[in-house]
Please model this.
Amino acid sequence: MLKSSVAAVALMAAATPAFAQSGEVEEVVVTGSRIARQDLVSSSPVTTVTSDDIKVVGATNVEEYLNTLPQLIAGATKSTNVTGQADATANLNLRGLGAKRTLVLVNGKRFMASNQQGIVDVNNIPASLVDRVEVVTGGASAVYGSDAMAGVVNFILKDKFDGLMVEGQYGLSGKGDAQDWSTSLTLGTSSDKASVWLHVNYEDRSTLRGTERELSRYSTIDSNGTFIRSGTAGRVGGALIGVPTPNGSGGFTNRDYALDNLVPRPFITATDTNYELQQDYAIQIPLKRTNVYGRGTYEFTDDIKGYVEFAYNNVDSRAILARTAPNIRETTNVPGLPYNASFVSPSMAALLAARSNPTAPFALRFEAPSQFPKREIAFTRDLYRVIGGFEGHLGDWKWDASYSYSHLATTEVQKGDISRRTFVEASTPSATDPTKCASGNPRCVLVTNLTNWSPELVKFLRVDNLSTTELTEKILQANISGSPFSLPAGAVGVAVGAERRTVSSADNPAPTLLDFASAGFGERNATAGEYDVTELYAEAIVPLLSDLPFVDYLGLELAARYSDYSTAGEVKTYKAGGEWRINSDVRLRALYQRAARAPNIAELFGGLVNTYPSMTDPCSRSANPTGQVAALCIAQGVPASAIGSYQQNGAAIEARLVSNANLKVETSDTITLGAVWTPSFLPGFNLTLDYFDIKIDDAIERMGGGPQGTLAACFASNDVNSPFCKTFTRSRSTYEIIDWGVPLANVATLRTSGVDIAANYGWTMDNWGFGGEPARMRASLVGTWVDKNTVKANQSAPEVDRVGTVGGDTPAIPEWRWTGQLAYSSGGLELAWQTEFLSKVKDRKYANALAAGAANPKAGIAAPEVDAYWYHNVRAAYSFDRYTVSGGVRNLFDKQAPRLSSPIEGNTDPNTYDVIGRYFFMGVSAKF
Model:
């Protein structure tokens, strides 16, 4: 026998309505609006995740579960290890529009960012403290301010606690590794007027290295349809890079030469590219995390309550990386190796002497020998957040005023680096005494070989970098909501408020990084800046009609926000929409929102970041410049006589990524259209369909999409004064590109559209119970169909649709994605099964070939497509007396991640596909 559940079935529901037996329904505020309502159906599509949902996958970090939701495209996770970074951050990327365009709230208030890009690390929000999470689609700047371009993720924390609770969980993979254990303690007490409670959580997550899984044991590349081991030219013994070599017809061609005991020979890609970046990279980044959260309230009167919240988060992450592979070459800031370097053998000297300029510096790449220590990297982050305020009533009006202070301090320690400047010093012999360094530095030890270094040379070359970053945010806000008057169709709801926010930050890189001389880590300038914003906002819900045939309710939802940024100036955002409730079963909703995102500190004030992208200068002889290209080269400063003879030195060009203090705000337009069906003949069931269309104009991205795109756009413009060509100059002596700064600019356009589907059903079964009690069942299915997800890097660039693709710099964006769950509970026993589906995707190489109209687009691609994926997770729990024991399995059938022809890292997309494998977890809790 089936009976209707009297509880709200909010499991992953998009704007799920509340169900109650009788009596007055408490007014609540649903994410997407600041107006308290009895009706939980919002005009904005809202997906709700409960703490029980998070437990199904054994998640100790909220991102582990949230990234299974179809609305989110994989952001940074515990498997993110791009370029060896080990900061163990986790972020959320709604709709694939970028984590910086997803606003994260805690209890409806903006949460502290974890870096200068304004991105929140959700590791700072312990899963054990979360009551529920509400995810809103589309721009919500009119309600919440900047950053809410793709939507809002609001973490609602547990509000009050009496007694003592101790919880613990331990997990490990089916192979006995990737251990993760956490424990938490919560204690509190309350009275009629006051409450106070404290929550402490600690997590210790172990390292899982890429070498411990077959997929990532070695890095591979797709070589004309076959996966082969890959690496870089930084081989043991070294390689000469880009040596201008006589080509037999009076010219020169840049060639690479492998060094065997300092004897050069032509570089053979198949056998000499053997520096293994995969060596020690982690596919589960280690983490030690401590979270402390406290809240206290006191009712001064029936209408005034004070509250204070305190949060402290400490994250410590460490990793050992492969030995550095220095790329020693002449750059804007560091000289190249002298032609008579101390380790140059006679055969090397003969090769260098045959160049067009025999005394020019040369370039070398090599893997540091075994005597040099492996690189280590460690991040320590301490975040403090204090909020104090008052809330209460003025008659029927609710008000709230608060002040928050947040401070983040990050320390980054990098060990095992080599300064390229110091290496050049140690390679330059004195003209008077070739056994000593030309610098005269008494500590300097000459480099005489590339395979066996003395302790003295290691000590001289080794550099340990210490960098710090601090970020401070102060927010003063006040708002009031209520009903000023009523219309025939009902009471008008209004919310108004003001907010003042100040953000400041300073990044202080280590000296070697500041010198742009690091061989093993990312170089950058210092970044320091601040901005403030003053905002006023108002929101209204206006009932127009009610209690009419086919119009049970018809109302408008309106909001507007005025923002005045010290950097970006005045910004206006707004929304307009409404709801049409045809009857108690069917509701329709529509909303238009104009949102904005102001540039963050890194975008406005970020220091230079050095990169060395592999590309060919169009003016170089190997590019065969003719016609308009040759004419533009001459206009840029390459003499006509050098056209056809000038050859760039090396396969890479130094490009510096720079910020832009003159950036404008990004703007977006979001349209959502939806329907909610709650059939009266099937109590406990609801179905929602929501169409979304989000377009972002003036998106802040790298000019031209990056250095390669900028250079291509320069020569496509055929105008020496084009914005793209003006980003660089050329050397008067070598004619190479120098002083190249690729800035950020408001140049890109992003757009995504699709349909969200959610179905939920809750019911009871008298005959299927346990322990003599009825069984309570919950079933849910939430999915997304993505129609488009396009990027246009600039006005002259082609539009690229990323739907149904994976690879390169883009995680998988399946056309279809579903998450379903079935849960059973009775007599203290809980059983749950969850499944996730990702539809087939094309590798980026294959997608590009299709877009180019290739006759055989799969030719030469080892893995042109990734088949559809299913993941399954199960959990069981039993509660008795004051204890609960639980356990489960994630990735029940041990589904392995795919090997990609265009991998993001670790030969795959580790943030979308599981790279760890079957995972077991077990836990226990006790409440006293």
